Amino acid sequence: MALSKIQAESMNLADTYAFSGTVSGTSVSGSAAFSARHDANEWGTVGDGGIVNFNNDSTGDSFDTDNCYSTSTYKYTAPSTGVYMFWYSIYTADGDTSNGFSFLKNSSKVDFANTGDDMMSYVDTVNFDHVQTATIVIPLASGDTMAACGTLSGTSDYFKGHSKWGGCRLA
What we know:
mainly beta; five-stranded antiparallel beta sheet
């Protein structure tokens, strides 16, 4: 079908078209996806705004489709402007009775809550093991970074071997 015909009429999406060259301006949901974990089975602590370190994105079902996650800085870098989804599952408690976690965007806690701590998850007065989870959908510009972090003025305990986080571009 000639370009003039497409411009003069309309493109029937039920038809089959053969294109050559480069298609640009498209985005694929679920692209730039990753899931990371830690390769040690030990307890760790993280302070307010400190990054929860996940140093493994290549063992088992962990992955990084577009090399956007750094296993040395523990940050995800958005490859392009869009809407992204992130999640974490952090196994916590040990001997600490207060544990809180959130997300960092460009090294500042994501401001989705009406509290000074900007917590996405928090448990107080519990010293038995449990899992804290959170999921956010957030717009990012190309080059913005995201990480999971602690949110308390003291420290939050987490078991590295049972904790994980990930995310992907939605649009």
